[in-house]
């Protein structure tokens, strides 16, 4: 199994569509066999689903993710673990031992040219901290 995690300075990067790197983990059972960081090569939003297919990712751990990316990843059969913060290594370890706190519907629907105070993050309470904008 290969798990991809949006990556920046050892942490889960909070905006899937703007991630410049993924940390990829090759896993057997509950053991990490290898891990390495890979650049997206400037790919963004829709192209990232294709990128993850090319690197044969089975799952993605990330912060916020828009609906279009969710659909593309689901259509590609890639499992989504969104709404995650903190260390990428800790997130993968938590996923493998069944303790990862995530949502499969971290849809932050917004546009970059609107007032970010009015966006709708379905996976948060009143205090939105998805950093997806």
Largest sheet: 6 strands, mixed
Number of strands: 8
Radius of gyration equals 14 Å
The mean pLDDT is 81
Helical percent range? 10-25%
Give, in order, the helices and strands.
Answer: EEEEHEHEHEE
Distance between the termini: 31 Å
Features:
two-stranded antiparallel sheet; 3 helices; disordered C terminus; 6-stranded mixed β-sheet; alpha/beta; 133 residues
Question: Can you describe this structure?
Answer:
With 133 residues, the chain is an alpha/beta fold. 20% of the residues lie in helices and 27% in strands. It has three helices and eight strands, in the order ββββαβαβαββ. The strands form two sheets. Strands 1, 2, 3, 4, 5 and 6 form a six-stranded mixed sheet that branches. It has a two-stranded antiparallel ribbon with strand order 7-8. Helix 1 (46-54) packs parallel to helix 2 (67-75). The longest helix is centred in the middle third of the chain and has 9 residues, at 46-54. The chain is globular and about 30 Å long. The model is unreliable at 109-133 (pLDDT under 50).
Quick take:
The chain is an alpha/beta fold and 133 residues long. The protein contains 3 helices and 8 strands, in the order ββββαβαβαββ.
Which helices and strands appear, and what pairs or packs with what?
Layout: E1 2-8, E2 11-12, E3 21-28, E4 31-39, H1 46-54, E5 59-61, H2 67-75, E6 79-81, H3 88-96, E7 108-109, E8 120-121
């Amino acid at each position: 199994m290969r798990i991809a995690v949006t990556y920046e300075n050892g942490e889960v990067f909070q905006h899937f569509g703007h991630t410049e790197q993924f940390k990829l983990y090759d896993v057997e059972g509950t053991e990490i066999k290898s891990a390495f960081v890979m650049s997206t090569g400037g790919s963004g939003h829709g192209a990232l689903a294709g990128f993850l297919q090319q690197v044969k990712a089975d799952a993605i751990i990330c912060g916020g993710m828009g609906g279009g990316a969710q659909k593309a990843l689901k259509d590609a059969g890639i499992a989504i673990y969104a709404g995650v913060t903190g260390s990428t290594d800790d997130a993968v370890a938590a996923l493998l031992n069944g303790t990862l706190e995530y949502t499969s519907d971290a849809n932050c629907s917004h546009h970059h040219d609107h007032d970010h105070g009015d966006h709708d993050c379905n996976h948060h309470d009143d205090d939105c901290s998805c950093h997806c904008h």
